[in-house]
Amino acid sequence: MEVLEFTTGEIGALVGSFLWPLFRIMGFFLTVPIISTQLVPARVRLVLALAIAVLISPVLHPMPQLEGISVAAMFIVLQQLLIGAALGFFLQLMFQVFILTGQMIAMQMGLGFASMVDPTNGVSVAILSSIYLMFATLLFITLNGHLVMIEVLVDSFYSLPVGGGGLSPGAMLQIVHTISWVFTNALQIALPAITALLITNFAFGIMTKAAPQMNIFALGFPVALMFGLFIVWISLSSFFDSAASIFTEAMMMMRDLTAG
User: Fold this and answer.
1) Which of 37, 107, 148, 205 could connect to 120 by a Cys-Cys bridge, CB 3.0–4.6 Å?
2) What span, in angstroms and rounded, lies between the C-alpha atoms of 104 and 246?
């Protein structure tokens, strides 16, 4: 009766071919939107990471054969976690566009004080920001954005193989420059509503000069609030097209990020 024998190097290669991709996937799931929220239990995220690692490990390039406990192995673990976390953080910035859009419009229409605890992030945001974020999340899932982001993650193992170089300084600088991209897109979405509300406030200023005895605060606040809600409702038709364009642009930027 023959007994299968494995050397230490073979066992290390077999385990490493599964573990090295798993660390990058786990780092990605720790920061990526939707999956990293408090609404998704840690066990569910762990099971998803294990399932994806099992599915993709057979088709990846050969993994480096290292000892289980060594400085090189710890360095690769840290490197994979940072790559996954950076990719997830990049997508997190994409969703901040809609939160910032809601904050801008809410401040102009007088709803800046109306905030609630966002159950996904555990922080207080304007109610309008929560509405925009909810619409953006549903649209992202409807457009199969969650599948695209996993596809980009898997493709990163070919452009940034395990054991090779991590994210380049140019890629890290690109993540920093993405912050200006967030403000630009948020302003573009909120600009029609901000302009309409600015004209409304300007009209109330003229009315105050024409009739100083009129209590402009008692009249202006409910009118600005109702008119702001009307503008938000009108702009929802273009919001979905803008959000889809932002998703497409963000995914292309994410691919460029992993490419170098």
Assistant:
1) 37
2) 18
